Amino acid sequence: MTELISSGLVRGLGIGSTYALLAVGFVIIYRATGVINFAQPALMILGAYATSVLATGAGLPFPVAVLAAMAVLAAVGMATERVALRPMVGRQPFAAAMVTVGVLTVLFVVAHRLIGTQVRTVGDPWGLQRAELFGVSVAQVDLAKIVVSMVAIGAVGLFLARSRLGLAMRATSMDQEVALAQGVDVGRMFSLAWGISAALAALAGMLIGTSAGGFEAITALVALKALPVVIVGGLDSIKGAVYAGLLIGVAEALTRLYQPRYAEWLGANVDVVVPYVIMIVVLVVRPYGLFGTREVERV
Amino acid sequence: MRSNPVQRRGRRGGMRRGVAIAGAFALLATACAVDDDDEPDDTSTDVAEGTEDAEGTDDGAAGEDGDDGAAGDVNVDVGVTEEPCPEAVNPDNGCIYLGVLSDLSEGPFAALGIPLTAGQEAFWQRVNDEGGIGGYDVDISTYTRDTLYDPQEHSARYREIEPNILALAQTLGTEPTEAILPDMDADNVIGAPATWWSGWAFEDNDFGLILESGYSYCLESQIGLDWAGENVAPPSTVLAVGYPGDYGGDSAAGVEAWAMANDAEFGGFVETAPDAVVGSQDAAIGQVVGSGADVVVLAVGPAEAASIVGGSLAEGYEGLFLGSVPTWDPALLDSPAGEAMVAAYRHIAPWEGIDGETPAHEAIRESLGDDLPANEGYIFGWVWSYPIKAALEAAVENGDLTRAGVRAAVDGLEVDYEGILPSATFGGEANETAVRTAVINQPDPEGSLGVSPLQVGVTGATADAYEYTAACA
């Protein structure tokens, strides 16, 4: 039972929370602009790098470094939207999504240049320390991932639900033309969506960078796990992104824990394909995701 | 994006399908990345039409001018010019062009590949500073290519530079090198590997083209376990953790052979992959902790090694980790796993680190000046260059610096490593000529590159007795 809680549930909820952070970033941009942002992995690793530089290089207190890194990446996200995505307004969303693939390539090259080939660390305070949770020893970093992610997602949810800007963003996501008619600066909402999404990606990068072995530029590919998460949760559902992230994180962790013992014949690293298996099953049963909006087809 | 809600929903439906396709593609890409059994690939059509040197010339190039070291008339063909090298040290010399196919930017071993290539450049700079070889300077910079540790890219870049090179000063990675071996065989191109696969010791595998230096991963793990048995405690259970294929697989085969020879239990081969592929090393950590092994032999990347060591110790594992050569990077001392690495990880190396006292070490330090390289890759590159230098010198001495002449010089070639390794002879029985010595290092913040030697010249009874008759994996 101890192992199930420590290495299964808490570890899974920890990594699942990080997936959820990334997925919420996808959803916010998708709801605001109808575009899937494939640049999220590069924004994530740049966030880890910014945290590393500010915390271990500049010597800022870790929380300050994290917030500053989120601000820097928010600015990068907003600038990206203004330069690369705004000219795509009115075009097919698929074309705009392809532009984000280009942005991913450019930012990935930048990340490689900045990070180089060496292992870097984010200077987090948790390291390999353990904590007692209901009598079970769990990794502090797993608890940190859960708490930090849920606080961040909760803050974004509150912002969207209670603030005037959040209301404007929701109005934009529901109908851009009506929002425009009501005086909402739709372009500003696009920019804000990219800023929030990039900040969340930076936070996720910091959490991924807490790995015992640090992080490298290539670690960015971990963010691709958020793709099945947004499909499972529903492309336009923040709630779905959170539940799906946690579901996939726990499923991965339990597979890592038990598959080598009870289904060794399946081979090594089966947990890697678990998110995609879940995605395929959900696509078959609910093509719009667990919490996504059902499509209305014109017939 | 100015559209009505129905249109937008329709587009979202399209997007969902698009993302689903992208997800499926990512699944396929992940599966390919985990399965490390890529077939050798020589399907490249990206062949640059470079300036191919006149073949069959027989002028001895600059050697005819009576430069020091000139060996009289020397036959030359591809990759050797009468014209001096770009930025030649000796403007009166001709030029021998060697190719470098390495991992220099985004591949998993770029952290090693960059200093490794720098070490090779320093080695050949020293050769040129001393007058070159037979009236020729050696250039490895012009035909250096980044192949990203990708067999397909390796093959494409090889075809690109092949018309202009005499040999390969470096071909990094076992599988990438295997991908170009048939072409190298057809082209009579020899090369120095940046890999310690056991197969390089056997002509069945490398066509006699690969001039390896030091032990193999297979013998490395056996030497390490022999050392642990004598200096820590005789292990009753041993476990191998590594990447599938010729790196981790070769190391794991050595672990299994050691267990069989010592009546120890082989806990198995835990296959893992880089963090970028599997997300984390949690699966490997779980199996290490649950294995009850006394010693775990790692054959992964540096970040992954730190994750496994740190994570396992945090989960209560109390055994010892032995890491293959590529598992160490000085930056790991600053990682969250730094303390765990110092406590429970020992690094196996084929030769002594930067602080060694051999003539080779002195030359390496002299080439560096006051700077330290990022990691031991610089030394690897330096050492791996000795056999190619010896082959070129032998070919000049034979009066045949053609590709065929260089290849013919390999059989029976004697290589002097200036003390950093015992002298080696190529072409004999692998069981007789295989290097079976290692250096055991421990992480040490005070060490020049984050490690200090615990013991040098380590040999072991199991490794010495191992019948080396075929590639281990």
From TrEMBL, chain A:
GO terms for biological process: amino acid transport. GO terms for molecular function: transmembrane transporter activity. Keywords: Amino-acid transport, Cell membrane, Membrane, Transmembrane, Transmembrane helix, Transport. The keyword Electron transport does not apply. Its main location: membrane. It is found in: Cell membrane. It is a multi-pass membrane protein. GO terms for cellular component: plasma membrane. InterPro entries: ABC_transp_permease (IPR001851), BCAA_transport_permease (IPR052157). The chain crosses the membrane at residues 12-30, 66-85, 94-115, 143-161, 192-211, 265-285. Belongs to the binding-protein-dependent transport system permease family. LivHM subfamily. This is Branched-chain amino acid ABC transporter permease. It comes from Phytoactinopolyspora halotolerans.
From TrEMBL, chain B:
SUPFAM superfamilies: Periplasmic binding protein-like I. Residues 35-76 are annotated as: Disordered. InterPro entries: Leu-bd, Peripla_BP_I. PROSITE patterns: PROKAR_LIPOPROTEIN. The keyword Protein biosynthesis does not apply. Keywords: Signal. Gene3D superfamilies: 3.40.50.2300. Residues 1-33 form the signal peptide. It comes from the Bacteria. Residues 96-438 form the Leucine-binding protein domain. Residues 35-70 have a biased composition (Acidic residues). Coiled coil: none annotated. Belongs to the leucine-binding protein family. This is ABC transporter substrate-binding protein. It comes from Phytoactinopolyspora halotolerans.
